[in-house]
Each structure stands twice: as structure tokens, then as C-alpha cells.
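Quick one, C-alpha cells below:
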């Protein structure tokens, strides 16, 4: 377990993603040496240390995975390949909801409950403020203080660069590395905006929508699609004077869910009330998730979904790679900028501009 960790006693010692220099594999440290000698590490030792529960090696490995420096990336992939055999026996849970719904508070309370029960919990936190500040988790970190101190927890902030609707391109691989390190519950927090829900749904087993009271009001603005992605709807902040209303909201959601297509076959999406602040109803959520796992394993949906998710990820990575490769030459970027101007002024049509961009590519 995490006790084997010699270097960092607290999960607060998370690395700040690819921008971080703390673990010595950041960009600048390599820049200094990369021309003279290639970046090398003892891969067998890394695999062993990650397996032994060293947070430091786990963080370093994730940094390599996220790296945009070619030789670091290659080593990251080699480590992932070695570690892949130890992944899989876990529960991957995605948590979504509008900002302020209480996702971070829920993750902290729920994660801590599981850690206290002996589970090892990894959190991939996606901080909505990161794209503005260029930083990572900081806005949320304060709310995960307790969880971060727990020896069974590991919190990994999502780097601000390379996000697909708030989810880092490498989040899936980060999740796998955490699993190989022995984390059995993976919690992925996503911002309730953009494409992030669909992307996170595509990498987790169970998708949880955190809602607030007043289903009627909220539904006005909430896309039906998001509700149909969820395996459970959790009405948070069911405490104090809000408790009664929360119970009423749960009843309203149940009615609505009745008319929607459940996200998973043979599963009736439940609605539950919790208070993340007062830690009530959390055990019921865990019970629901475990029932879900049991049933989905029985009807093979669990295994099927994971395989399909891997294939879908493969396809996404291909598109990503094509895009990156195409625009990796400065010429292409410049050409696009010029064409953009022409398109804006109406001098060429969009199709013509695309044609031009690609035809000049094939000439090279
Ligand atoms: N009363 C009450 N407040 C809560 C609860 N959960 C979260 N909050 C508060 O709601 C605010 C937003 O919470 P946060 O976890 O940051 O939401 P996020 O944006 O979805 O991650 C904070 O001020 C929390 O203290 C709850 O169960 N009850
Ligand atoms: Mg949050």
C-alpha cells in the first residue's frame, strides 16, 4: 500500500502536471541535456517502484506520459506498456455537474469514506480555472485537503495544456498508471460544460451526475443528453433547510428518468439525495455503484464497455495524431493563418480554403 512511499508522506505533494519541474522531468531540465545525451531512466526500477506504491515514481511516470517532449513521451509509453498488465481490476467513476454543484466536496467526502474502508482512491481532478490561470488544481485543492492527506489517496491535477473540453488527452493513460499502482477506485472530476461529459463517459464504468435542488429549474437549462449519460443522479446539499427540497427534487428526477433511456442496459438510473458537507447518503451511493458493477459484470456489459472504450480511445488518438502531425510544420500553421484571413473576408469559400491547405500538403 501507500505506506511503502518513502519520499512523500502526503498526497498533497502532487505534481503540477507537465508544467511542473519538481520531479526533474520537466521541459527545461531536459532541454539542458537533451542535445548531449538522450533522456534515460531505469525503466525496470520505475515499474517496480510504481507497483510498490511510490507516489514519487507514480507522479514522475504520469509526467512522462503527459510530456510533449518526444523521448520522454516514448519512455512514458514504454512504462505504460509494462504496467498495463496490472490494470483493470478497478472501478472507474466519472463525476459531472455544473460548477458549484459540489463535485470537489463530494469527491473529498466520498473518497475519504472509501479510503477509511481500506480502498485506495486516485482522483483525477480537472480544474475549470486552470485554462484561465495556467495553473492546475489550486482552486479545488483546498477542498480536498483532508483526502489529500490520507495515505490511501492520490490526487492528480489535470494539466492545463492539451485538454479536450476540459479533459486532458492523457487522462485515460494517467488512470491506467494509477490502477497499476494499486489504486482500486478512480474518481474523475469533470466540469459540467462542453464535450467533457462525453469524453469522461467514454473512459469510466460509472457516470454520476451531481445535481442541485429544484430539478424543474435546473432541467430548463440542463441538456437531456447529459441525464442520459448518467448511471445515477445525486442531488447534493441535502442538509439543513435544503433537505426537504432535496428529497422532493429526488422524486422529480425519478419521474423524469422514467421517460429517458438509461445509460446502461438493464439498469434503472436511480436518483439519490446526499450531503457531501455532512457526509450523509454517501454509503448509499457506494452501494449503488457496487450493485451496478455486479449486475454489469453478470450481463457482460462491464467487460464489453471497457473493450469498446479502448477501441474508441484508439480512434480518438488517431484523429488527434493526424491533426498534430498535419499542423506540426510551421508552414502549415502560417498557411492556415493566411487562409483564415481570406475566409474571414469572404475571398475564398471554406471548402476552397480546406482544399488549398490539403493540396499544398500533397505537393510537398
Ligand atoms: N450545504 C452544503 N454545501 C455544500 C455541499 N457540498 C458542497 N457545498 C458547497 O458548495 C460550494 C461548491 O462546492 P465545490 O465542491 O467547489 O463544487 P464544484 O464546483 O462542483 O467542485 C462550496 O462552497 C461547498 O462548501 C453540501 O453537501 N451541503
Ligand atoms: Mg470542483
Amino acid at each position: 500500500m501507500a505506506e511503502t512511499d518513502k519520499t512523500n508522506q502526503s498526497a498533497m505533494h502532487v505534481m503540477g502536471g507537465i508544467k511542473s519541474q519538481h520531479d526533474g522531468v520537466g521541459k527545461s531540465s531536459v532541454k539542458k541535456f537533451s542535445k548531449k545525451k538522450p533522456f534515460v531512466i531505469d525503466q525496470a526500477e520505475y515499474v517496480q517502484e510504481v507497483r510498490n506504491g511510490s507516489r514519487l515514481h507514480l507522479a514522475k511516470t504520469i509526467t512522462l506520459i503527459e510530456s510533449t517532449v518526444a523521448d520522454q513521451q516514448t519512455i512514458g509509453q514504454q512504462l505504460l506498456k509494462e504496467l498495463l498488465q496490472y490494470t483493470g481490476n478497478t472501478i472507474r467513476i466519472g463525476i459531472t455537474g455544473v460548477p458549484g454543484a459540489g463535485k470537489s466536496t463530494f469527491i473529498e467526502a466520498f473518497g475519504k469514506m472509501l479510503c477509511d474502508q481500506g480502498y485506495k482512491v486516485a482522483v483525477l481532478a480537472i480544474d475549470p480555472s486552470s485554462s484561465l490561470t495556467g495553473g492546475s488544481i489550486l482552486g479545488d485543492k483546498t477542498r480536498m485537503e483532508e483526502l489529500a492527506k490520507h495515505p490511501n489517496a492520490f490526487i492528480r491535477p489535470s494539466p492545463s495544456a492539451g485538454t479536450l473540453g476540459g479533459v486532458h488527452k492523457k487522462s485515460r493513460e494517467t488512470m491506467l498508471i494509477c490502477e497499476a499502482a494499486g489504486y482500486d477506485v478512480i474518481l474523475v472530476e469533470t466540469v459540467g460544460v462542453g464535450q467533457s461529459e462525453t469524453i469522461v463517459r467514454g473512459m469510466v464504468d460509472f457516470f454520476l451526475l451531481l445535481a442541485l435542488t429544484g430539478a424543474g429549474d435546473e432541467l430548463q437549462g440542463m441538456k437531456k443528453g447529459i441525464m442520459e449519460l448518467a448511471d445515477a443522479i445525486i442531488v447534493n446539499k441535502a442538509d439543513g433547510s435544503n433537505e426537504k427540497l432535496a428529497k422532493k427534487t429526488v422524486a422529480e428526477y425519478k419521474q423524469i428518468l422514467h421517460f429517458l433511456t438509461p445509460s446502461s442496459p438493464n439498469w434503472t438510473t436511480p436518483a439519490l439525495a446526499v450531503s457531501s458537507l455532512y457526509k450523509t447518503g454517501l454509503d448509499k451511493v457506494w452501494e449503488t455503484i457496487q450493485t451496478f458493477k455486479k449486475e454489469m459484470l453478470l450481463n457482460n456489459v462491464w467487460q464489453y464497455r471497457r473493450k469498446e472504450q479502448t477501441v474508441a480511445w484508439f480512434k480518438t488518438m488517431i484523429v488527434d495524431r493526424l491533426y498534430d502531425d498535419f499542423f506540426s510544420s510551421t508552414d502549415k500553421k502560417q498557411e492556415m493563418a493566411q487562409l483564415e484571413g481570406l475566409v474571414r473576408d469572404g475571398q475564398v469559400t471554406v471548402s476552397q480554403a480546406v482544399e488549398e491547405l490539403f493540396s499544398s500538403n500533397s505537393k510537398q
